[in-house]
Design brief:
137 residues, alpha+beta, seven-stranded mixed β-sheet, three-stranded antiparallel β-sheet, 4 helices, 10 strands, globular
Protein backbone atom coordinates (compact mmCIF):
# COMPACT_ATOMS: atom_id res chain seq x y z
CA UNK A 1 0.00 0.00 0.00
CA UNK A 2 1.09 3.53 -0.65
CA UNK A 3 -0.42 6.87 0.25
CA UNK A 4 -2.67 8.10 -2.54
CA UNK A 5 -3.82 11.65 -3.20
CA UNK A 6 -5.95 10.26 -6.05
CA UNK A 7 -7.95 8.04 -3.67
CA UNK A 8 -8.48 11.05 -1.37
CA UNK A 9 -9.65 13.07 -4.37
CA UNK A 10 -12.08 10.26 -5.22
CA UNK A 11 -13.55 10.41 -1.73
CA UNK A 12 -13.81 14.21 -1.89
CA UNK A 13 -15.67 13.81 -5.21
CA UNK A 14 -18.05 11.43 -3.42
CA UNK A 15 -18.67 13.99 -0.64
CA UNK A 16 -19.40 16.74 -3.19
CA UNK A 17 -21.69 14.49 -5.21
CA UNK A 18 -23.51 13.25 -2.09
CA UNK A 19 -24.14 16.87 -1.12
CA UNK A 20 -25.41 17.84 -4.60
CA UNK A 21 -28.58 15.73 -4.13
CA UNK A 22 -28.44 14.28 -7.64
CA UNK A 23 -29.15 10.52 -7.58
CA UNK A 24 -27.76 9.99 -11.09
CA UNK A 25 -24.42 11.62 -10.21
CA UNK A 26 -24.40 9.78 -6.88
CA UNK A 27 -24.90 6.44 -8.64
CA UNK A 28 -22.07 7.25 -11.05
CA UNK A 29 -19.61 7.24 -8.14
CA UNK A 30 -20.77 3.89 -6.72
CA UNK A 31 -18.96 0.85 -8.11
CA UNK A 32 -20.88 -1.27 -10.58
CA UNK A 33 -19.06 -4.39 -9.41
CA UNK A 34 -20.10 -6.93 -6.78
CA UNK A 35 -19.77 -6.37 -3.05
CA UNK A 36 -21.15 -2.84 -2.87
CA UNK A 37 -22.32 -2.05 0.65
CA UNK A 38 -22.69 0.71 3.19
CA UNK A 39 -22.99 0.51 6.95
CA UNK A 40 -24.58 3.50 8.64
CA UNK A 41 -24.14 4.72 12.18
CA UNK A 42 -27.64 3.85 13.44
CA UNK A 43 -28.64 0.29 14.42
CA UNK A 44 -29.77 -1.62 11.34
CA UNK A 45 -28.82 1.22 9.00
CA UNK A 46 -27.08 0.19 5.83
CA UNK A 47 -27.34 -1.27 2.36
CA UNK A 48 -25.98 -4.50 0.97
CA UNK A 49 -26.33 -3.72 -2.72
CA UNK A 50 -25.81 -0.82 -5.09
CA UNK A 51 -29.41 -0.31 -6.21
CA UNK A 52 -30.83 -0.23 -2.68
CA UNK A 53 -28.20 2.29 -1.64
CA UNK A 54 -28.91 4.58 -4.60
CA UNK A 55 -32.68 4.28 -4.11
CA UNK A 56 -32.40 5.14 -0.40
CA UNK A 57 -30.19 8.11 -1.22
CA UNK A 58 -32.74 9.38 -3.76
CA UNK A 59 -35.68 8.97 -1.38
CA UNK A 60 -34.18 9.94 1.96
CA UNK A 61 -31.03 12.04 1.67
CA UNK A 62 -32.10 14.26 -1.20
CA UNK A 63 -35.51 14.90 0.41
CA UNK A 64 -33.96 15.76 3.77
CA UNK A 65 -31.31 18.05 2.25
CA UNK A 66 -28.49 16.34 4.16
CA UNK A 67 -24.94 17.11 3.08
CA UNK A 68 -21.68 15.31 3.84
CA UNK A 69 -18.56 17.28 4.70
CA UNK A 70 -15.14 15.67 4.76
CA UNK A 71 -12.53 16.48 7.36
CA UNK A 72 -8.95 17.62 7.09
CA UNK A 73 -7.95 14.22 8.50
CA UNK A 74 -8.80 12.38 5.24
CA UNK A 75 -6.17 9.76 4.45
CA UNK A 76 -6.08 7.45 1.46
CA UNK A 77 -3.98 4.53 0.32
CA UNK A 78 -3.94 2.38 -2.79
CA UNK A 79 -2.51 -0.79 -4.24
CA UNK A 80 -3.16 -0.89 -7.95
CA UNK A 81 -6.85 -0.36 -8.69
CA UNK A 82 -7.98 -0.75 -5.06
CA UNK A 83 -7.78 1.88 -2.36
CA UNK A 84 -9.11 2.69 1.06
CA UNK A 85 -9.81 5.84 3.05
CA UNK A 86 -10.10 6.88 6.68
CA UNK A 87 -11.80 10.13 7.63
CA UNK A 88 -13.99 11.92 10.16
CA UNK A 89 -16.74 13.50 8.03
CA UNK A 90 -19.97 14.95 9.30
CA UNK A 91 -23.54 14.79 8.06
CA UNK A 92 -25.05 18.28 8.09
CA UNK A 93 -28.77 19.06 8.23
CA UNK A 94 -30.25 22.14 6.55
CA UNK A 95 -30.60 23.88 9.93
CA UNK A 96 -26.82 23.55 10.50
CA UNK A 97 -26.97 20.80 13.10
CA UNK A 98 -24.59 17.95 12.36
CA UNK A 99 -23.62 14.39 13.19
CA UNK A 100 -19.86 13.84 13.53
CA UNK A 101 -18.82 10.41 12.29
CA UNK A 102 -15.84 8.21 11.65
CA UNK A 103 -15.47 6.58 8.25
CA UNK A 104 -13.56 3.80 6.63
CA UNK A 105 -14.11 3.10 2.97
CA UNK A 106 -12.98 0.96 0.07
CA UNK A 107 -12.73 2.44 -3.41
CA UNK A 108 -11.92 0.85 -6.75
CA UNK A 109 -10.65 2.53 -9.90
CA UNK A 110 -13.11 1.94 -12.74
CA UNK A 111 -12.78 3.76 -16.05
CA UNK A 112 -10.18 6.12 -14.55
CA UNK A 113 -12.55 7.13 -11.74
CA UNK A 114 -12.26 6.11 -8.09
CA UNK A 115 -15.67 4.66 -7.19
CA UNK A 116 -16.97 3.64 -3.79
CA UNK A 117 -17.33 -0.09 -3.11
CA UNK A 118 -17.91 0.04 0.63
CA UNK A 119 -18.34 2.68 3.34
CA UNK A 120 -18.65 2.15 7.09
CA UNK A 121 -19.72 5.07 9.25
CA UNK A 122 -19.65 5.03 13.03
CA UNK A 123 -20.27 7.49 15.82
CA UNK A 124 -17.71 7.59 18.59
CA UNK A 125 -19.32 6.70 21.91
CA UNK A 126 -17.49 6.09 25.16
CA UNK A 127 -17.18 2.39 25.97
CA UNK A 128 -18.95 2.82 29.29
CA UNK A 129 -21.92 4.36 27.46
CA UNK A 130 -22.06 1.59 24.86
CA UNK A 131 -21.86 -1.44 27.17
CA UNK A 132 -25.15 -3.28 27.59
CA UNK A 133 -26.08 -5.07 30.83
CA UNK A 134 -25.78 -8.85 30.88
CA UNK A 135 -29.05 -10.72 30.57
CA UNK A 136 -30.18 -12.50 33.66
CA UNK A 137 -30.59 -16.27 33.31
Amino acid sequence: MQESAAVCDGMRDFYRTFSAHDPEQFGALISSGPGVSAIGSAPGEGHDNRNDWIDAYAKEITQAGITLEGDTTLQGWSNGAVGFVVDEPRFVLPDGSFLPTRLTGVLQREDDTWKVVHLHFSVGVADEDAFQPAKST
